[in-house]
Amino acid sequence: MTAKLNVNIDHVATIREARKTIEPSIVTAAVICEQAGADGITVHLRGDRRHIQDRDIELLRDVVTTYLNVEMAATDEMIAIATRTRPDAVSLVPEKPGEVTTEGGLDVIKNFETVKNAAESLCRSVHRLNQALADPRSFLHP
């Protein structure tokens, strides 16, 4: 298997949101990454919208020509967004209110029904569901 480089551009949006302006542009960041050879773009749409916004996902879906992976919680709200925007992959990640960054993995056993329902919904509407169980970077908790 050939290694692939997906670049997470969340912190471009973090700076934009902190400045309360339109720059730096998440779209420009994605295009630069692809032009530099990235195999894909990854963003995390959090429930609190602290960096990536819904509109960013829509814009990135229109602009990214390689591979768009969206990390998100397994909530009805997030599944609806993924269904509407159709990223190439969705990575289900845990979210805790108030955490600065994702703190640990998704406990699939404890949250089996939630994950199962989210996966079924996504598989009906999204190109591919990224559940790489053997890859610790997928934020799954054994």
Summarize the structure in words:
This protein is α/β, with parallel strands linked by helices. The chain has helices spanning 10-19, 26-35, 54-63, 76-85, 112-125, and strands at residues 6-8, 40-44, 68-72, 89-92, 106-107, 129-130, 140-141. The strands form 2 sheets. It has a 5-stranded parallel beta sheet with strand order 1-2-3-4-6. It has a two-stranded parallel ribbon with strand order 5-7. The protein is globular. The chain starts with 5 loop residues before the first strand and ends with a strand.
Radius of gyration: 15 Å
Instruction: Assign the structural class, choosing from mainly alpha, mainly beta, alpha/beta, alpha+beta, or little secondary structure.
Output: alpha/beta
Distance between the termini: 23 Å
Q: How are strands sequenced across the largest beta sheet?
A: 1-2-3-4-6
What is the total tally of β strands? 7
